[in-house]
Write a structure and sequence with these properties.
Shape: globular
Strand content: 25-35%
Number of strands: 39
Number of helices: 15
Helix content: 10-25%
CATH architecture of the largest domain: Distorted Sandwich
Strand order of the largest sheet: 10-11-12-15-8-7-6-5-4-9-14-13
Oligomer: single chain
Largest sheet: 12 strands, antiparallel
CATH topology of the largest domain: Beta-galactosidase, Chain A, domain 5
Structural class: alpha+beta
CATH class of the largest domain: Mainly Beta
Length: 747
Amino acid sequence: MKSNVKWNMAAVVVVASSLATAAACVAEVGDVAIENARCRLVISGDGFAKSLVVKATGEEMLESGARVPFSAVTQNRPYDNEFKLMYAAKPWTLPAEKIWREGDELKIRYRDEFFTAVVKLETTDDYIGFKLLRFDYELEASGYKRKTEVDAFTLAQLPVKRRGHFGRTLNVVWDDNAFAALMAVRPETRIDAFDRDSGRLTFFAGGEKSVGVDGLHAVLVVADERERFLDCIDAMERDFGLPRGVRNRRHPLAAASYLSTSRITPSNVDDYVRMAKEGGFRSIMTVGLGTLWRTNGHFPARRDYANGPSDFRKVTDKLKEAGILPGLHVFCTKVSTDDEYLSGGHPDPRMNLVCEVFLSRDAKADDKTLHLQSCPALLRREKNRGLVRFGDELVMYGGFTEEPPYALTNCVRGLWGSTAAAHPRNSVGRHLDVDDWVRFVRCGDSGIIDEMADRLADWINTAGVRFTYMDGAEDVPEPFWCHVPKVQWNLWRKIQDELIWSETAFKSHFGWHMQNRGNGFDVFKGELQRPAMRKYILRTVRQDADDFSAVNLGWLSMQPPKKTDPSKKPGPSHQYAQPAFWNGTIGLQIDVLEFVACKAAAWNCPIGFFISLETYKQHPHAKDLLAAFRRWEDAKLAGSFTAGQREAFKDENREWLLWPFAPFDAPEPVECRQVTDDAARPLRAFSYTRDGRAGIVYWDIFNHDVAATTLDGVDTTLRRDLGRCFLEANIPEAELVVAFRKHIEGR
């Protein structure tokens, strides 16, 4: 489903000069004041937000003199008969020109329109709510008049001053003295903020016809300090039955990392409990597809879970007995191509569509070219995404012509158990929305989403799952701001025991209530972890901190180091399909892990760590990695690092190791610097200075044990920890590095 409304500043925020002219034509009316225990909002009678004051501090939150209409109506073209004859076929936005209050209702009239919007005011100590109840029409007698459509509706707009922080997801501006957010109560209400050259932000709450404007609902939350502001949002979540995003952010394990696996079964769960204890993990996430289920959609159980959710309950019970929270990774937006919804001869007609095509000629069952009546611009060009359903037959085209005669070319007929058949002229072909990951087809906004949620909720409720990762959140139809959280909330509402936390693959405003921990990024090679962290993940951490949200600083993978195999050729660009992706890699090394762990400690964030029994056995430093991870995880969750240490950790160009010879209840971070580059084999080394002594920590990436090193002419001491040697001397660090490099180059 696609929206016909183009959201931009021209369509949402009307040009100030035009508004001033319109306002001059309206008789001056009194201001409307709306206030609660925290704030006082004043709207002028001619339709503009004038003031928003934080009562505790007297801070003014709005830009003085800004003439932004509080409410507006957008039509894709003029619909009134007379205006239709006056103006061009362009979207036009009609601003509020008169606002007044009657009890707990706000009445709004618009320039050149014949209706009044009736908005219910919900005033509590913690927030002010605005809910669109209806449009009351008053049609004039002249001309042919009718009730006109509303393609987009602006429920509320506020010209907010910029402050030190702006959280784009939550839609909040804040500093030490004032906090203000305009938030949605339901996913069909769009929340946004538009930048202005003047430096202000225009907070926006509204909606569009493609998902419905009836019942648009938003709240304004204002407070003078952080925890009081979060308390207000918590009250709003409680009052409207939303997921408890604030409460979950305050959970003592909100920053706890998890071990993730796609290999856990009732027969090996004890091995995973042991690994979790070694790594200090308080939770384990099971990847559902491939572990519990053979396909995504109907979720048929795999052999290890032949009894369905009750077998999964055996796993989660074992985890809970060990004090480990069980979690589940799910896809709730799309169907795998081998699922019953698509395979088996009768593909479900409710899948999401890219477009429709029509045959211009009769087609035989063995035709490889299917002639079309036109060439839709929306046809997909990427390989394996050209899937079209004609009746019960699935066809994959290899290409298409862009000049007459139009046709789908190089077609593969009768895919996935469907039968190749003849189709008469004018037959409709429905172009299915194949996912970026071509193993899936997207469901769209259909009953399939609800059916999948019922099945997933059965597994989650039966097994007592305590957290989820809702993957594929981006794989929904437009408008994304609505459908991304709508699908997630559809599943969330079916879960009996409220989840402690949830991560999703794509952020959204309404999803803030569910996604109290940001998404993990897909696995990077060990060599690429630092640059990827700097380019993507740490940038996200800083950004999401303004939304009071943590970010998963994984996903890490216990990938063993591998020597280069010249016989392996580079594969496709998609890393999951690339057989040589890990060819010649350092894998996950302890320094890479500690770089990520120190950043997690800096921002109080979790880490998702993918481990299987196979990689645990294959990695020469598996136990070392888990032991090092536990040191950082325990210290982070115990709050053992000082504010100064955490602030230093935030520097993306600095890194630390935890001094292994310090007491575990008094962790000591030691800053270190890389000595050997990532191409060096097999030794990997870092330098540091501690208590006036320089040191080199080094290890063999391919073997657990490493030979002791002596340096000519340098008096050194040597200690060992986690497969590493700590070589120290009473000389400057730079001199020790030179001596060490000279030694290893001469080996």
